[in-house]
Design a protein that fits this description.
Helix content is 46%, strand content 19%. The chain is an alpha/beta fold. β10 and β11 (367-371) form a beta hairpin.
Length: 392
């Protein structure tokens, strides 16, 4: 598939996910400018799509702007239908999912039909969950069109639908058959949307990939200009990192949980503000800052008490280095939020267990920790302090 200098092909192999005992399942992620054209010329994808009905899930503005770029790929199918959904988080409402199921059924969807998610993370989540559940599961290709979706949400098989009290409260794992991340599509995105997506790469690199984090630090001026060559290595490096984690932990039972750094508090912020006042990456950035505050508080308490697991948190200069990157992203202050409402949402987080929340906290650059048993009164105090100090 790949051939051009800035075109990268990354294989995501998942042991034990194939159809037979001991078998595996794998799929390619094509990253770079021209990835869509390269995918349309790929013999394996042509064979996959031929003689199938393909359902394209997208938003109207995106389809009007970039639909012609997707057309050579969908032309490989026997027939295709385009279903338009709302922009942003509104796409992930249960009513949209039901509408999509009904449209697919009305258009003659079969067990060998295939969904193409053409859009940002919300479109990918909705289309992925629809594919995972329609007729007990059909196949999916992800074509992410935002930086956030290209660096993170399109890879790994997570799908989700929002409920009023919690983001992604209903979801399933469905690994795609391919991911096509054409970085030339990113040129029309607003700067704030690009900065929001960058937060996801910073989040992953901080706890999982010291080398990528340090490259972002070294080349941050170019990163913040989002030049085409920079976007190519930034997305490819992020996908390589995400793919390695997914290979080792496809169903988020161990190390993959570290990818939730900043998401517990961030998702609660999104729910508390009605999924309409913060971009996902902006909420995650606030979530990272809250996690740093929690880690610092636990570390201080452990040191005062003469030791304990908390003493190993924030063991180097990661906190100021993370803050130096986030502070240049022009993140918005928080709107007014009732602390009690936010705390209630945190208690209902989808990752919570009967024993309480598991927090993803940093130990040092390139290494994180999953911390259980954090006292609720500590969390409540820090929530109030954070909201008071950040505009809410």
């Amino acid at each position: 598939m790949a051939g051009a200098p800035d075109l990268h092909r990354i294989e995501v192999d998942i042991p034990g996910a194939g159809r037979g005992p001991g078998s595996s399942f794998g799929y390619p992620v094509l990253v770079g400018p021209g990835a869509l054209a390269a995918a349309a010329a790929d013999a394996a994808l042509a064979e996959l799509l031929s003689q199938r009905t393909v359902f394209v899930v997208t938003s109207r503005p995106l389809h009007e702007r970039h639909g012609a770029r997707l057309q050579p790929l969908v032309d490989l199918a026997r027939r295709h239908r385009v279903f338009e959904v709302p922009d942003g988080e509104a796409a992930k409402e249960p009513a949209e999912l039901v509408r999509l199921w009904e449209c697919m059924l009305a258009e003659g969807g079969k067990r060998d039909s295939l969904v193409i998610a053409f859009g940002g993370g919300s479109v990918g989540d909705l289309a992925g969950f629809a594919a995972a559940t329609f007729l007990r599961g059909i196949e999916l290709i992800q074509v992410p069109t935002t930086l956030l979706a290209q660096v993170d949400s399109s890879v790994g098989g997570k799908t989700g639908i929002d409920l009023p009290r919690g983001k992604n409260s209903v979801g399933a794992f469905l690994q795609p058959r391919a991911v096509i991340a054409d970085t030339s599509l990113l040129g029309t995105l607003p700067a704030a949307e690009l900065r929001s997506g960058l937060v996801e790469t910073i989040k992953m690199a901080a706890l999982l990939d010291r080398e990528l984090f340090e490259r972002i630090e070294r080349e941050y001026e170019a990163v913040l200009r989002f030049e085409p060559a920079t976007l190519a290595w930034l997305v490819a490096g992020s996908v390589e990192m995400k793919a390695a984690v997914v290979r080792a932990d496809p169903f988020e039972r161990a190390e993959r949980k570290l990818l939730n750094f900043g998401h517990t508090f961030g998702h609660a912020l999104e729910a508390a503000t009605g999924y309409s006042q913060l971009r996902h990456g902006e909420a995650v950035a606030h979530g990272i800052r809250f996690a740093l505050a929690l880690a610092a508080d636990l570390r201080s308490h452990a040191i005062e008490a003469g030791g304990g697991d908390g003493a190993g948190l924030l063991a180097d200069d990661l906190a100021p280095r993370l803050e130096a990157l986030l502070s240049r992203l022009e993140l918005p202050l928080l709107p007014p939020i009732d602390p009690l409402h936010l705390i209630g949402i945190l208690r209902g987080d989808k990752k919570a267990r009967e024993s309480g929340l598991t927090w993803v906290l940093p130990r040092r650059l390139g290494r994180g920790a999953l911390v259980d048993g954090v006292d609720e009164t500590r969390v409540e105090r820090l929530v109030r302090e954070y909201l008071a100090g950040n505009g809410a």
